[in-house]
Amino acid sequence: MARIKLAFVVFAIMVIAAWLLSINVSLLTGNFWSVRGLLVLLTGILAIAFMSAAILLAARPVQIEEALGGLDKFYRLHKWLGIAAVTTAVLHWLSEKAPKWLVQLGWLERPKRSPNVGAEPPPLESYRDLAVDLGEWAFYLLLVLAALALWRRFPYHLFFKTHRLMALVFLVLCFHAVALIPSSYWSAPIGWLLVALLGAAAIAAGLSIFGRIGNSQRFTGEVTDFHFHEANSVLNVGVKLTTAWPGHAAGQFAFLKFADGEQAHPFTISSGWANTGRLAFSIKGLGDYTRRLPTMIKVGQPVTVEGPYGRFDFGSSTGAQLWIAGGVGITPFLARMEAIALSGQKQDVDLIYSTGAADDGFIDQVRSAVSASGVRLRVVDTGQEGLVDLTKVARWVPHWREADVWFCGPAKFGDSLFQAMRKDGLPDHRFHRELFDMR
Ligand SMILES: Cc1cc2nc3c(=O)[nH]c(=O)nc-3n(C[C@H](O)[C@H](O)[C@H](O)COP(=O)(O)OP(=O)(O)OC[C@H]3O[C@@H](n4cnc5c(N)ncnc54)[C@H](O)[C@@H]3O)c2cc1C
Question: Does one domain contain both 205 and 221?
Fold first, then answer.
């Protein structure tokens, strides 16, 4: 998380710095109307820059996964950038409208002449009115789409469809920006930055509109076997790939699609990679689709697998590790145990598997992975032993402070452990977690 916080701050500072280098800074101490003119430009530029960066991340550029810590993390950054884009767009709209309302109310004097914010007219001056009107309507649509994205009760499959409209909204706002940003900006640092950002984001928006995001990472296969564990509602699915898979590191995930027209859902690959074309997944019934899947799936059914993504890869360290899994969060650890067993190496690992719905068959699967890998296991049935907290962890694994902690499970469980461990002196970078929620 530290990396994406840093990326967000650095990006915002970079845009503001490029803008400051491009304006006549003496106007910042000018009268109300000249400062307001600058504010309209700054907030507008920040809004379109944040939105461009958010759209770029939505195109899943795997090349920057390493730098940002994995696709799950940069979807979180995408969300923050989206919120920042909407917030600055609201400020842009207010700084444009509010002074006019104050003039109408007679609380503010109309400027004698159009304030000169140190800029020549924009290059597309003749499209000005169209750009203003389209920009205003796109802004209202942006507010609605953002509200739907943040409203957790709005079903994911509908959010997924409405959210794709963001690409169109972005293209309209690009036109608004290009038509209204003053000419002088385009030959200054902010102009160069915007050309690069808007150009790349427009390509990403096009990929999204034509459904081509992730195309180069897409492979096909078929279902070879499946087994449904009723007690914990986990469906184990085996897949044999029919196109060449680049291989994956234990802990990575893929988007699976079992039928055309269906949405791809992200699931951790719960098997290690042995170059056999075989992948395994453990899928918990957590929503409409995943609850229906056990009744729909068939052996021989074609599957599209998009991936691998993610950097929950257990680092390169061979030092002590403490793994904590909540429910179906056990999946990356299953993959890692298979990888350790395949490599024949030994690693000093304690695994705490906490489950609220203990399923004997599933626990046997975990135990057999444990015995093949030499990992030390503690299964916690939270129905009988209560929730896992740091006091219990410290009792079961007294040397936990010397270990790197890898957590996968419900967000609240992860948050409370992270806070408790941090309070107890564990440096943030030694607590690694997979974010199971992309919204
Ligand atoms: C990196 C990652 C790894 C995951 N690994 C596993 C795993 O190994 N096993 C497992 O059981 N679950 C895993 N999940 C969670 C799993 O993706 C969701 O439980 C599943 O998509 C729910 O789909 P649904 O339509 O049944 O539920 P819904 O009720 O429609 O959605 C519940 C939540 O699931 C997420 N979700 C739903 N559809 C999508 C989608 N198309 N794309 C992205 N997120 C979506 C959203 O956060 C949504 O709020 C993982 C999630 C992520 C992000």
Answer: no
Residue among 237, 286, 291, 293 whose CB has most ligand 1 atoms within 8 A, to mutate: 286
- Assess whether 407 and 389 both reside in one domain: yes
Tally Cβ neighbours within 10 Å of residue 138: 19
Q: What is the CATH number of the domain that holds 383?
A: 3.40.50.80
* pLDDT tens for each residue of 119-176: 566 667 789 999 999 999 999 999 999 999 999 999 998 999 999 999 999 999 999 9
Nearest CA to ligand 1 atom 53: 436
Q: Are 4 and 80 in contact (CB under 8 A)?
A: yes
Q: Is 154 in the pocket of ligand 1 (CB under 6 A)?
A: no
Q: What pLDDT is attached to residue 345?
A: 85
The verdict on 91 and 120 lying in the same domain is yes
Q: Which domain holds residue 372?
A: 321-433
Measured from the CB, is residue 64 less than 6 Å from ligand 1?
no
Determine the distance separating the centroid of ligand 1 and the alpha carbon of 230, expressed in angstroms.
19
Q: For ligand 1, atom 47, which residue shows the shortest CA distance?
A: 437
Query: In whole angstroms, how far apart are CA 117 and each of 43, 89, 114, 180?
Result: 14, 20, 9, 13
- The number of distinct structural domains making up the chain is 3
Largest CA distance in the chain: 82
Any domain includes 161:
yes
Question: Which residue has its alpha carbon closest to ligand 1 atom 37?
Answer: 156
Report the DSSP beta bridge partners of residue 281: 237, 269
User: 257 in ligand 1 pocket by Cβ < 6 Å?
Assistant: no
Residue 61 lies in a domain: yes
In a domain? residue 439: no
Q: What pTM, to 2 d.p., does this model score? A: 0.89
* Residue at 314 is within a domain: no
Model pLDDT, residue 126: 82
**Percent share of the chain, pLDDT over 90:** 82
Cα gap 333→70, rounded to integer Å: 17
Residue nearest ligand 1's atom 6 by CA: 267
Query: CB of 60 closer than 6 A to ligand 1?
Result: no
